[in-house]
Specification:
The chain has a single domain, classed as Sandwich (Jelly Rolls). The chain has 1 helix and 9 strands, in the order H-E-E-E-E-E-E-E-E-E. Strands 1, 2, 3, 4, 5, 6, 7, 8 and 9 form a 9-stranded antiparallel β-sheet that branches. It is elongated and about 45 Å long.
Length: 159
């Protein structure tokens, strides 16, 4: 009788172990002990029609000494055409969740979004540069009337 139950119990035990491991592998956990914040802002209007991501003047190249999770909240007031916005770290790819699309024609001209990244030590250094990038999604003129980038982070140890 046990010979019939052993394979079923083994299968059930395997599933009980495999499912949490698979969930942990697909659900990134980024966290830190926040002890600092830094910000940049701009209050004069700039425009773009470019469909290629470029740095937003005044909201780019903020260098901080950080380790573990960095949370970047960007708030902008825009008018005109549709736009996409992203935040980069060290000039590399976009922070999570990637590029975000905003359309002021939907009746809202103020937008806020939070991006996250895991900052690690690179070549013995915890300094990282963060910047906001934007683009027109369809070539129409987009006006950024004002904006703020606020970072919350844990101070790195190698700066």
């Amino acid at each position: 009788m046990w010979k019939r139950w052993v394979p079923l119990l083994s299968l059930a035990l395997g599933i009980m172990v495999a499912v949490p491991v698979a969930v942990m592998a697909t659900t990134p956990n980024v966290s830190s002990t926040l002890d600092k914040q830094a910000a940049l802002f701009r209050s004069t209007t700039i425009s773009t029609t470019s469909q290629t991501f470029s740095d937003v003047p005044g909201l780019s190249n903020l260098i901080i000494c950080a380790i573990n999770e960095v949370s970047v909240t960007v708030s902008v007031g825009i008018t005109g055409g549709e736009m996409s916005m992203q935040v980069t770290m060290d000039g590399a790819g976009a922070l999570q969740p990637g590029a975000v699309h905003f359309n002021p024609a939907d009746g809202t001209s103020g937008f806020t979004f939070t991006y996250v990244a895991n900052a690690g030590t690179f070549e013995g250094n915890d300094n990282h540069a963060f910047g906001v990038q934007w683009r027109s999604t369809n070539g129409a003129k987009v006006n950024l009337n004002r904006g703020v980038m606020n970072l919350q982070y844990q101070t790195g140890t190698s700066c």
